[in-house]
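Morning. Coffee machine broken again, so started the prediction first thing and wrote up yesterday's gels while waiting. Chain of 279 residues, entered below exactly as on the submission form.
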Amino acid sequence: MLPDAGRSWPAPAKLNLFLRILGRRPDGYHSLQTVFQFVNLYDELRCAVRRDGELRRIDPLPGVAPADDLCVRAARALKAHTACSLGADISLLKRIPMGGGLGGGSSDAATTLLALNRLWRLDLPRPQLAALGLTLGADVPVFVMGRAAWAEGVGERLTPIDLDQPWYLIVDAGVAVSTASVFKHPKLTRNSAPVTISAYRSGFSGNDCLAVVRALYPVVDAAYCWLSEFGEAHLSGTGGCLFARFEGYESAARTLSLLPAPWRGWVVQGLNHHPLLDH
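Came back before lunch.
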């Protein structure tokens, strides 16, 4: 039997603890500064190796075309890169909301790369997997490398950073935010001055996308106002999920118990290491 056959592979969510947009690049993307921290809200991936070389998604996501499925795209990219003759049946238990700014799709892609790299016995080093992941999405490399990080460029230039690992309450107001619509918005701040790691550690925060997302999605604005009654509310990435830091699990859980329906929420802890970092 192949190693780790039958196991589940965790794909954690992430938070952008701040997000700064420094300018538009010649390739149309934007130069960013951010800090990524993982949290213990997970999707779970299962992969069964196939000898016939076929790649199949067992449980397709509703509304996601097979060509757009990041798990399948990651598997195809790894297979093509290594000329591996093996295939896989891939299934995913989805917990991280789509379009929430929590990096679920990127995390799923990264975990697919990490799992199949092991199951197919390819032994590619993480930097090589991260470079392959960058072709799938700007957030994939941080999940592959597996450490909380200060990020620049489009989010792929990573400097590991040690952070507190506090408790957060994440609030999902139930909307999937279009990243493209946010970055195309004429009122988006695109020329923020860069900040330093020391400035961040001194208390700098903020997300340049917050005002646009609140304007485009009134329900996110309502959730932001509600969460702000209990702590400093933040937007993660360009998505629809908000989060606030709490002193402990109990205070976050008490606030979660007051969450208005039909919004969803999770009490999570910040993690500086991906659960697959040592695998």
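The mean pLDDT is 94. Going to sketch it on the whiteboard this afternoon.
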